[in-house]
Amino acid sequence: MTAHVQISLEVNGERIDAHVPPRLNLADFLREHLSLTGTHVGCEHGVCGACTVRVNGDIVRSCLMLAVQTQDASVETIEGLSDSGEIADLQAAFRDRNALQCGFCTPGMLMAAQDLLKLEAEPDRDRIREHLSGNYCRCTGYQAIIDAIETTARARKERTS
Amino acid sequence: MNEPVNPDGLSVLDRPNSYIGKTVPRPNLERLMQGRGLYVSDMVLPRMAHVVFLRSPHAHAKIIKIEADAAKRVPGVIAVVTGKELAAVITPWVGVLSHLKGLKSAPQSAIAIDRVCWQGEAVAAIVATSRAVAEDAAEIVSVTYEELDAVTDMRTALDPATPVIHPSLGDNLAFERNFDAGAVDAAFADSDAVVEADFIFGRHTGVTLEPRAVVADWSAAEARLTIYQGTQAPHMVQNLAALHLGLGEAQVRIVCKDVGGSFGIKVHIYADEMATYALAKLLRRPIKFVADRVESFNTDIHARDHRCKGKIGVKNDGTITAFEIDDLTGIGPYSMYPRTSAIEANQVVNLIGGPYASKHYRARARVVFQNKNVMCQYRAVGHPIACSVTEGLVDLAAMKIGMDPVEIRRRNLIPDNGYPCAAPSGLRFELLSHHASLNKLMAMMDYDKLRAEQAALRVKNIHRGIGIASFIEVTNPSAAFYGVGGAKISSQDGVAVRMDATGSIICQTSITEQGQGSESLTAQIVGSVLGVSMERVRVILGDTDNTPYGGGTWASRGAGIGGEAALQAAKILRKNILDVAAVILQASPSELDIVNNEVVNASDGAPRIELKELARIVYFRPDTLPPGIQPEMMATRHFVPREYPFAFTNGVQASWLEVDTDTGFIKLLKHWVVEDCGTIINPQLVDEQIRGGVVQGLGAALFEKCIYDERGQLTNANMADYLVPMSGEMPDIDVGHVVSPTSETELGAKGAGEAGTAGAAAAVSNAVNDALRPFGATITEIPLTPQVVLTALGRI
Question: Alpha carbon of A29 to those of A32, A41, A81, B67, B83: distances in Å?
């Protein structure tokens, strides 16, 4: 097998140095090497969105990115966003609206939702549906998720205005 | 009588601070939202190895030779195990039940031994220190096959010229049921119009976001197997794993942590799961199996795949005279274990015409073997077929006699004051509310206004349709489902409730959680009955060592059966607490109540003693209690319905959509559901079960289909080609309720998990046909892809 590669990156604000096989994808690196199992693997071909994480501020499918591509990058996972409090209001809205059932899609959903809320102050329901259209949820039928994100957007707008 | 007499006649659930009927957040959400749940795919155990299954590329072939020497030499490979080698530690099984008369199937092995019968059946297990290494090694295992003719088309599966998949069975017919009630021929002869149609239902599957996953851990020292699995039915898995591995049940423990979606996909026993248990025992170490997405499509049970000829008779006044069906379904090469693959067809026969008063009904259902993936029970088993056929026929009949689809339903739905009664198929209905539900639906959707809008848009060449679908749903199943047929699947559930030394409550239940809210509803019921706040109630589920024995969560039984057991257990504990409180306070138990975690006077609510103080005395200072007083701070109760085999629920759905007659695309604009599940424990959880169920039904209606070619190759086994509903295409769904509690339980709750899926496709199909009415096109096939729509319109 191809020799391992040395990488250095930041994950949730923590400096990480690791030796990884070149073929290792970022999702498996996070889950298996760093035990950050909040990043879920649903389809392994970039369709379901369960493995969505943030790399240098942009959301990516961690199953479609290699770990070696994160050299010098800043990677943020659901654990990091939870601990920093960045999405505490969004999580509270998800809880109040029961916007998750089995919860397997939820870390990716929250990542995608927070991405939209950072880009746009008050997205309407169609815009929210469009932005989440790459994140598969089999349980909820989506409506509760859309409601929770809409509620969070309004609350954030009120706080800032 | 120790229960306080309530002057208002309120039940134990209508108490101050009751959680029943209230929306409260589920207690287990926080860990899931923080990415700190524990799904089986997250688990790691010391010395754990990973198994990858090499799977057949052929739908039907003899296995001539398996060469694995090179693979065994790959660094990190622990073992390569064939079906023959694994058969030394695990026995095969046959998926039949005695109450499905005539159902037959062939022995199925954990790994194929001489022959593979569908594309995706495992032929060897590769166990290695990592999954990547196992996958590398799997690529160099060489299997020589001799390809056999594949039986793929269910329509010709019974033809004499078609090869018989299991020669020992004599033919490819797994099961046939014939049913005849009333005087069907006379009823058709007496009709003003008779309408027939062929209904076609695509084969689809559950696509749980977390694939099936198992960690099996054999302890050679304890001679005990611990299986971590995302299953809906832990005790069923325990029983079958023990049976086929030659172990006692006490030697097998099933632990079920967080489950990433189930919907019936995870209520069965799969061959690769059995193989994983056996490998753990064979190799004496923990083995992990996580299906990848291709494997999920090729091996998770598929569902539906019916072709159903339907016939309805109607009089000019709208009276439905009779229903007749001839249903055909293909189930793959084996009847699934242990619930069998004949249940869906059997349900179709049971449920056709169910909402209606017509008494004349004839049915034939045939279930045939094919060389495709196995088929079995998936959310709303049989309901979407029965509902689409029934409601499609009712709409066709209405169209034929020129009657509004709502009006024909009003004239034929069983009257709300007509209960109890029975359907022609023998189903017994305790109390349903079809008319109240339909009336509520009409108000919610503003039917007349929508009809006016539809007419106004027609002239602008915009083609919108309204579709209505009434339905019934089987919930709270008794032993009639599986137990009477010999399956060791519990139909009763148990709950143990105890108060600990600080006054907090631990509750162990045999129902399981896959996101429906089992944990929440249990805590709500127990908290309400005991007068304890929910945050003091901890619920434990999914562990055969640590919960009462029971069925689990499937067939919409968790709230109705597990909830009643929780209620009854909590009542006993409440009595025991009040008995002790009465001794301590030198009062009569009937003078006392528990509210907000403290014992109070029943009369004026004055505080008497906090539960934590009572618990302190019970556990740490029992010496201060009078002689002979032994407090019992733990109570267990079980429940199973005995009077009715099933608690039927009912409801009605409506779809409002637009068909683009140039492209064939369907845009869903709005969906409504009125549902009657009896007592509602948590309105939000019920509504979200309905919405999630509807969207699964919408997926089947518009997108989802496992496309096999004529050689039995599944051609779209990935999420890019197999389309599922995503947020962008789904409508908002309004949900309303009518409440007709079952009087078989004190709780009064019936199930709600399958109502959405039961009627969604029927509503959409009827709406599409309503939209296409000016074109004279009628479609009775799902999924309603653009190709199907354009073909019906004669555009392609």
Answer: 6, 12, 18, 33, 33
